[in-house]
């Protein structure tokens, strides 16, 4: 397989995996929690390195996943104690990320773990970091990890589809009929942490946040059907990946940065041209209302 193929496959897996999880985050108004997790996992990565003195991908994955789960738990604890959700996210995010930055600057200055790497990532190196699993050789480690996480997310979404749907749109009714709303919340937070951590090392925090928020928000503007929203979000994640890669190659720019930019561009187009929620549609609707009022 070619160099370009592996980069596009990795970015597409990030777009699809983050996109389907992002739909639930957008609908539940938890989008910024993805920003917190994508940054606080730095603490898990550096902690895993300090404990094992190894840059093994799975070791760092486990460390980052633990901190990602802790982030969601700490945010939920502060929220339950009366702290507003946005303030709770801000407190936990800045505190844990700051500790990670301090540890990196103190104990990992001579290795490739640095703040710039964690923010922007380096998807261009993905094709060279291959592993041999299940007797299959030459597949990048990021592709394996993202593929496994995508399968896990899809299975959980299919298993709890009705429960997620009801608890998302009417949590009071879901609790009244006995659905484990709290457990569903933590399952979603686990999916978010798993997805963010799997994507983090390959593409960096900026693209993870962009893919967790922008495709889902774009799909939200274009449809009100729950299942269609997941499909559109995955499609927009892939479109951002493909268009971002080729534009970055053309301009000799950051691949991850351009993919995040294209995710924003797709959202902007939907924000303007959406037939129901777009600026143009709203302007036309408001003009018609004004004309009717004037006639009466």
Word description of this protein:
With 296 residues, the protein is mainly α. It is 80% helix and 3% strand. The chain is built from twelve helices and two strands. Helix 9 (181-222) crosses helix 11 (255-273) and helix 10 crosses helix 11 (255-273). It is globular and about 75 Å long.
Give a short synopsis of this structure.
InterPro entries: ABC_BtuC-like, ABC_TroCD. With about 300 residues, this protein is mostly helical.
List keywords for this structure.
296 residues, mainly alpha, ABC transporter involved in vitamin B12 uptake, BtuC, two-stranded antiparallel sheet, 3% strand
Question: What does the largest sheet look like?
Answer: 2 strands, antiparallel
Spatial strand arrangement across the major sheet: 1-2
Q: Give the name of the CATH architecture.
A: Orthogonal Bundle
Q: How much strand content do the residues show?
A: under 5%
Number of structural units classed as domains: 1
> Which stretches are poorly predicted, pLDDT < 50 over at least 5 residues?
none
CATH topology: ABC transporter involved in vitamin B12 uptake, BtuC
Class based on secondary structure composition and strand pairing: mainly alpha
* C-alpha Rg (nearest Å): 20 Å
Shape: globular
Q: Span from first to last CA?
A: 67 Å
User: What is the CATH first-level class name?
Assistant: Mainly Alpha
Number of helices: 12
Order of helices and strands: HHHHHEEHHHHHHH
Q: How many strands? A: 2
The residue-averaged pLDDT reads 83
Helix content, binned percent? over 70%
Protein name: Metal ABC transporter permease
Membrane topology: Multi-pass membrane protein
Keywords: Cell membrane, Membrane, Transmembrane, Transmembrane helix, Transport
Main location: membrane
């Amino acid at each position: 397989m070619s160099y370009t193929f592996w980069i596009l496959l990795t970015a597409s897996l990030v777009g699809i995996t983050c996109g389907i999880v992002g739909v639930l985050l957008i609908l539940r108004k938890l989008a910024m929690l993805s920003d917190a997790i994508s940054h606080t996992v730095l603490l898990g990565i550096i902690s895993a390195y300090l404990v094992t003195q190894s840059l093994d991908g799975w070791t760092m994955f486990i460390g980052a996943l633990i901190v990602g789960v802790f982030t969601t738990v700490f945010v939920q604890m502060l929220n339950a104690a009366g702290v507003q959700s946005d303030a709770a996210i801000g407190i936990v995010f800045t505190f844990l990320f700051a500790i990670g930055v301090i540890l990196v600057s103190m104990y990992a200055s001579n290795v490739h773990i640095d703040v710039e790497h964690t923010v922007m990532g380096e998807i261009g190196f993905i094709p060279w970091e291959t592993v041999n699993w299940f007797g299959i050789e030459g597949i990048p480690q990021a592709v394996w990890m993202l593929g496994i996480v995508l399968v896990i997310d899809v299975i959980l979404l299919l298993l709890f589809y009705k429960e997620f749907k009801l608890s998302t749109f009417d949590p009071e009714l879901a609790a009244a009929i006995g659905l484990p709303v709290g457990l569903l919340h933590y399952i979603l937070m686990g999916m978010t942490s798993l997805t963010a951590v799997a994507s983090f090392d390959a593409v960096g925090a900026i693209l993870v946040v962009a893919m967790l928020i922008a495709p889902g928000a774009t799909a939200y503007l274009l449809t009100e059907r729950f299942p269609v929203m997941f499909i559109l979000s995955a499609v927009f994640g892939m479109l951002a990946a493909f268009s971002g890669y080729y534009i970055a190659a053309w301009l000799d720019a950051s691949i991850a940065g351009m993919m995040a930019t294209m995710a924003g561009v797709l959202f902007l187009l939907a924000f303007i041209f959406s037939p129901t929620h777009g600026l143009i549609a709203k302007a036309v609707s408001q003009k018609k209302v004004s004309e009717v009022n004037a006639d009466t």
